[in-house]
Write a structure and sequence with these properties.
The chain has 465 residues and is an all-alpha fold. The protein folds into 2 domains: 2-388, Sodium/glucose cotransporter; 404-465, no CATH class. Helices cover 79% and strands 0% of the residues. It has 21 helices and no strands. The protein has helices at residues 2-21, 27-32, 39-50, 53-57, 59-66, 68-94, 101-108, 111-144, 148-197, 201-204, 220-234, 241-247, 253-270, 272-284, 297-305, 308-342, 351-375, 379-403, 409-428, 435-453, 457-464. Helix 9 packs across helix 17 (351-375). The protein is globular and about 70 Å long.
């Protein structure tokens, strides 16, 4: 029954994509859905894009092992990030009438920085997308018995087709449907688990005091990993293209801001549900934590100990989460390739050809992502790695450039080069304190010092006048 349902659900999703593709007439339709999304659509699409595989097949195992500290580092951090974006960034950037984060660097600094940041942004996404491919492969292995390696290829092929045909219009409509399935599927599974455990209290009855601490256990290594993960998601995701692609798709600045707040609330509320489900699964069947290092504890528990109706709802929710995140994550770098690398360098490029090249870029991004998926099967590790470059290279010039008038081109270059170099060297020499922490601090310091030492000349003239 499940083996029939999964292909059927994927066909329906693709059908929606084909239907939505009829609204794609221009490159703007493909990338920003014609700038017509309401508050609810903006919020739900951001939620669906961020509520990916790590929230169902990565974070839960960390929570079972590490407790509340992992909830803070992996989920509270994501909600904080969206609140920061809503309060400080969304309105300002929406009013600039741009398409990508890299566009901001062209407007605020110059075209060379636009190209550099575009390249950095593009290289951050394959890890993130790879995490979704791995999760989809684990799902296919659990339900259909397909080997993980073949599952990665199959999952990538499905997501490429789904993203290629519909663009942002397809993502918006399917995200709304998929978010409903995510909520219904997880809540029914949660109710089923509580029925077996006798409520929530037994899940925490035998836990040590350290489990309830919002901070990690003592030790420099634990604190370093905790802070690095928290910063990667809270700070590293602030310049993330897939968030602003939805913000820029809003019909107004107010819808963009409110949609971001809505996404933060949805994420905080519903991302906690899989953690409690995993805790219940580990309580009822502790041997499941040994399967794939606990990353597949929920799917395995569902497939072995749940009835067919519940399995259908759960796998519908899980497929929805993975497809939403994958399609959104692939559309983001493909848009950057088209808007910031191809369009400026091909002056005679028509909008029709730009649309075609943006779609072809989806395929290119998928191929690179498959490489990383085969190289690393740790879902949460892939997610954190995807945000490292954004945090140590892009965050400082992006944020200072938006809020500090003295930010200069030289300061931006200093932040990118110094932050990236320090991060790489610390990563290479395996410093005890996480490399991203060093990189972020140095990037911010370089941004400030570089801007003060060598301000932009035209700004000096404006000040004198």
């Amino acid at each position: 029954m499940i083996a029939i349902f999964i292909p059927f659900y994927i066909v329906i999703t693709l059908a929606i994509g084909f239907w939505a593709s009829k609204r794609v007439k221009t490159s703007t339709d493909f990338t920003l859905a014609g700038k017509s999304l309401s508050t609810s659509f903006v919020g739900v699409t951001i939620f669906a894009t961020w509520f990916g595989s790590s929230f169902v097949m990565g974070n839960p195992s960390y929570f079972v092992t590490n407790g509340i500290s992992s909830f803070v580092a992996l989920i509270v951090s994501a909600s904080i990030c969206l609140v920061l974006i809503a309060y400080f960034y969304a309105k300002k950037l929406y009013k600039m009438n741009i398409v990508t984060v890299a566009d901001f660097f062209r407007v605020r600094y110059n075209r060379k920085l636009e190209t550099t940041v575009s390249t950095i942004v593009i290289f951050t996404y394959p890890h993130w997308i790879a995490a979704q491919f791995v999760a989809l492969a684990y799902l296919f292995q659990s339900v259909l018995g397909i080997q993980v390696e073949y599952g990665i290829v199959l999952g990538a092929s499905i997501v490429v087709l789904y993203t290629y045909i519909g663009g942002m219009w397809a993502v918006s409509y399917t995200d709304m449907l998929q978010s409903i399935l995510i909520v219904i599927g997880l809540m029914l599974l949660f109710i089923n688990i509580l029925g077996q455990t006798g409520g929530i209290a037994p899940l925490f009855a035998d836990k040590p005091t350290s489990f309830f601490s919002p901070f990690p256990q003592d030790g420099l290594d634990n604190w370093s990993e905790y802070i690095a993960t928290f910063l990667a998601i809270t700070i590293g995701a602030i310049p993330a293209q897939e968030v602003y692609q939805r913000i820029f798709s809003a019909k107004s600045a107010k819808a963009a801001v409110r949609g971001s707040y809505l996404a933060a609330i949805l994420l905080l509320l519903f991302a906690a549900v899989p953690l409690l489900i995993a805790l219940g699964a580990a309580h009822l069947h502790p041997e499941l934590m040994a399967v794939d290092e606990g990353q597949a504890i929920i799917p395995v528990m569902v497939s072995q100990y749940s009835g067919i109706p519940l399995q259908i709802l759960f796998y519908g929710a899980l497929i929805s989460a993975i497809l939403s995140t994958s399609s959104g994550a692939m559309l983001a770098p493909a848009t950057v390739i088209g808007e910031n690398l191809l369009k400026p360098n091909l002056p005679n490029l028509t909008d029709k050809k730009l649309l075609l090249f943006t779609r072809l870029s989806v395929i290119l991004v998928a191929l690179v992502s498959c490489y990383f998926a085969f190289s690393d099967l740790d879902i949460v590790g892939l997610l954190v790695a995807s945000l490292a470059l954004l945090m140590v290279c892009v965050f400082a010039p992006f944020t200072f450039g938006l809020f500090w008038k003295k930010s200069s081109v030289f300061g931006a270059w200093s932040a990118i080069i110094a932050g990236g170099s320090v991060w790489f060297l610390c990563y290479l020499f395996e410093t005890r304190i996480d490399a991203t922490i060093y990189g972020l601090v140095i990037s911010c310091l370089a941004m400030v010092s570089g801007s003060l030492l060598r301000p932009d000349r035209h700004k000096e003239k404006q000040t004198k006048e």
